[in-house]
Amino acid sequence: MAQQLYFSRDTRMFIQFRDPADNTEAAAKLGAGALWEVPVLDGYSFSQTTNTSEITLAEMESTAGISRRGRRMFTDSLAPAEWSFSTYIRPFKSKAGSVTPAGSVAASNAAEVHAVEEAFFASMFGADTYTTGSGFTRATNAAASGGGVSGGVITPGANSSVITIGESNRSALTSFTLYFMIDTATDNPLVYRMPEAIVNEVSVDFDVDGIATLNWSGFAKEIQDVSGNVCTGTTPPASNATGATGRKDGSAIVLGDIFIDTDNAAGRQFSLIKTVPGGSSAVTVTAAIDEAATSTKNFIRNRLTSVSVEAATATDKVPTIFPGQQAAITAIDVSGGTDKVTTGTAHGFATGDEVQISGITGSGGTTVDLNGTHFVNVTSTTQFKLYNTAANATTGSATGLTDLDALSAGTLTNAVVCNGKYSLVLTGGSFNIANNITYLVPEELGAINKPLEHVTGTRTATGNATCYLTLEDSDTTSGTSRQFFNDLVGTGAMSKVVNKFKVTMDIGGSTAATEGSNDPALKIEFPAAHITVPTHQIEDVISLETAFEALPTDFGTANEITAITYFPVGDYA
What is the pTM of this model? Predict the structure, then answer.
């Protein structure tokens, strides 16, 4: 009898979500929920162990000089299964709007943005159902009772897909089912099933020469070998099929069994049986969604990644605290001209930036009222207009434009404008989001219990960015890494027991992370991160490592992350 060996290189992974029509664990077991194929990288793992107790015995020696010693091991309970794997970050725009490819993720009339691995983000942040054309939602939404958010956890759009975390404050997350198919021979695949799986942690490291990768880890209730539940053939089998067209173990076909299309003409090799009509009628299946899973155009290059750090509190954007980029104001148009502010040197601002003006004085002059928070519309490297909102500044709308003509000149000797932004050109970095999940496992004498249920802990969102220690001619005013360090240890910063910075990570580049772009990217926004003083890394070139902790605005609020946004490649073929 020949031996069958299985090789990790042949592994394919699938995730089954809940059925929106029957949002129960039983429905997930019956093959009715949406199913995706997510390519997994080398180095994946899954395992399950037991919780044990050790009893030791030690006595003093007897009159014969013998000391009795010994130990026993007892199995207390079965620990939850643990799994980990890596996936590439792969956003794409579905082609379903023009032609429905095999395994399409979108509705037949919707060319919307998705990602190959999006189901894992959805589960991690509280989603429990998926509906074609609507995305991932929470069936039992908590918005009406003062928690959660209205709408979806992942809402696919025409040019981007936004992930929100407002539904993630749950004592327990809704589980999904993982399948690992190790398929060295289609006629005899090895399939492991992990029911009631949940995502505990995701992280990404910015290897400068690498491809953007997400590292996932989590738990499941147990690991099941379901190789005997597999049916193979070129078409779904009849409900009473036996032998070569039936289940591998010879049993009757039931809901949730696996069908593998050996012909694979439709590109859907792995499916789950969702109805068994009886008699000789063919069963119906839930086919795996695999759109864009084989594309090579939707990979993201880490070298394009950038990070922006901005003081989150507007009043901190002053020269004595966290000025970031700043410039002296030399003129304010009050002559009925162009309503522009002029700086003595290039200001470095971008349209839409929030700025703080300070230092304007003047006896009876109303220009002093300009001290405070504004939003800029940049007209040149040394000039900009002032607006009351970022939206008005971005569009250049007449609404909200500050009428400088109505003001008197004031004194500009000490006038300065700051945007609180620091530009850190990365050499490396990472971020990590964790649910800190634990499992409740009974431990009864004389019995070995399985895990009962998981509970979520305090969510953590942390990261770090490494950059060279840089010096420029305008080092004290251009938001460089050296200025950032000096400002964080300055007198003004030391008076801030809690500092708040908006940290934005553009994985794939900030120029790519715009709607309608043809470059794939992932944008992550932490609105109120606490940043520690950067540490110096003494190597060939001196570097700074900046660590941050993303925090919510209040206890019980899930807003450590404003949004995670996918920006797709225009054509993934």
Answer: 0.88
